[in-house]
Amino acid sequence: MNYYREFLLLFIFVIQMAPAQTEQDRKEAEIINVQKGIVAKLTGHEPIKGKKKLKSRASKSERKISADFLYNSLKDIGLKPERHSYNVKDKKGNLFNGANIYADIPATNGSDEYVILAAHFDTVENSPGAVHNATGVAIAYYVAMKLVELKERKRNFMVVFFDHWKSNMVGTRMFTKKLKDEEYKIHSMHRSDYMGWDNDEDRAIEMLASSLSLESLYRIESPVPIYKREVATPESRFFANFGFETVTLTAELKNADNSPFVRKSEDKYTTVNFKYLASTTDIVHGVMKSLAKD
Q: 17 pLDDT exceeds 60?
């Protein structure tokens, strides 16, 4: 009789737990499916246009093909993307021309405040740039797709893919200047990089946040360890110079749990841990939903 009672209790427990587990599995599978498509095309694992496969996203032609792909991908989820083109010289007289790709996801209540989701899409020469930084692009893209589906958004959101990271962040600099010059009211800027390697399988992330309130948002949403980054990234310092609050998410750099292939020819699609990428994406999605409701 005791055996029967124990079996019945175990059966009830399994039945109660199964729907939640199934829902989590379904969510993870959806994220992975979307992100594999983005990363595969940006890294040359699959053709990005016709039979064309990218070897990197460094040359002018490669960056244009990548920008066009991202532009069309944003259209596919119902957004109206724009190209922020620039043609600028640095102090040494080097000329840079390129295009950032961006799209607004409007608030439903008339708010004039913006939350920015960003990632750079270019690479160094001869690197497919999977972990650095097709994964960051994949995070921003998926979260943008889910934000479009929300019936109510109390803030505007903007997804931005920066060109020319490898050239002293020219694309980032030009776009941030545009936001400042056009007097956008920026709540915060959120960017991801190096997010695709998890050798110890703890799904931990590293975060640099400019305020305790932003840091708290991520810690509330995160079921995994978040390590506080102590050293500012060049991008975060640059955003701060314009007075913008920022969050930077990376893999676990502090504990050396990061891809050894970054900026190398081995930084391929096949090295990406998509379950880890999905885990981080789900956290970012939770934070953005919270900001949309607040």
A: no
